[in-house]
């Protein structure tokens, strides 16, 4: 079966986000003064073959742990859906 893994990687709480600060300042310059904070991250969509949903979830978790997220400064969430 084919599955689609959707992964969102963000910085852990307390890790400085210079890109987020730059975006927040640019939004303020564009008169969006109500913006208090911007957090940046990464989004990945991975299509894979697996026998079961559990196997697909395990494989996506392994991908995140080994490559897609830096465990020192980043955290991730993901969901896996069957592709019909």
Descriptive account of the structure:
The chain is α+β, with helices and mostly antiparallel strands. The chain has a single domain, classed as 2-Layer Sandwich (Mth169, Chain: A), CATH 3.30.1280.10. A three-stranded antiparallel beta sheet has the order 2-1-3, with helices on one face. The chain is elongated. The mean pLDDT is 98. Part of the FGAM synthase complex composed of 1 PurL, 1 PurQ and 2 PurS subunits. It catalyses: N(2)-formyl-N(1)-(5-phospho-beta-D-ribosyl)glycinamide + L-glutamine + ATP + H2O = 2-formamido-N(1)-(5-O-phospho-beta-D-ribosyl)acetamidine + L-glutamate + ADP + phosphate + H(+). GO terms for molecular function: ATP binding; phosphoribosylformylglycinamidine synthase activity. InterPro entries: PurS (IPR003850), PurS-like_sf (IPR036604).
List the helices and strands and how they pair.
Layout: E1 2-11, H1 18-29, E2 41-49, H2 53-68, E3 74-83
Antiparallel strand pairs: 1-2, 1-3
Subunit structure: Part of the FGAM synthase complex composed of 1 PurL, 1 PurQ and 2 PurS subunits.
Protein name: Phosphoribosylformylglycinamidine synthase subunit PurS
Pfam family, one: PurS
Give a quick rundown of the structure.
The protein is of the alpha+beta class and 84 residues long.
Characteristics:
84 residues; 33% helix; alpha+beta
Report the order of strands and helices.
EHEHE
Which structural class is indicated by helix and strand composition?
A: alpha+beta
Q: How large is the count of helical segments? A: 2
The CATH class, by name, is: Alpha Beta
Largest sheet composition:
3 strands, antiparallel
Radius of gyration, CA atoms, in whole angstroms: 16 Å
Give the end-to-end Cα distance, rounded to a whole number of Å: 8 Å
Total domain units: 1
């Amino acid at each position: 079966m084919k599955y689609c893994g959707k992964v969102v990687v963000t910085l852990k709480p307390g890790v400085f986000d210079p890109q987020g600060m730059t975006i927040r300042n640019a939004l303020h310059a564009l008169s969006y003064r109500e913006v208090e904070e911007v957090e940046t991250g990464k989004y990945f969509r991975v299509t894979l073959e697996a026998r079961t949903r559990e196997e697909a979830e395990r494989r996506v978790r392994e991908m995140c742990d080994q490559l897609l997220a830096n465990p020192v400064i980043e955290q991730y969430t993901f969901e896996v859906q069957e592709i019909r």
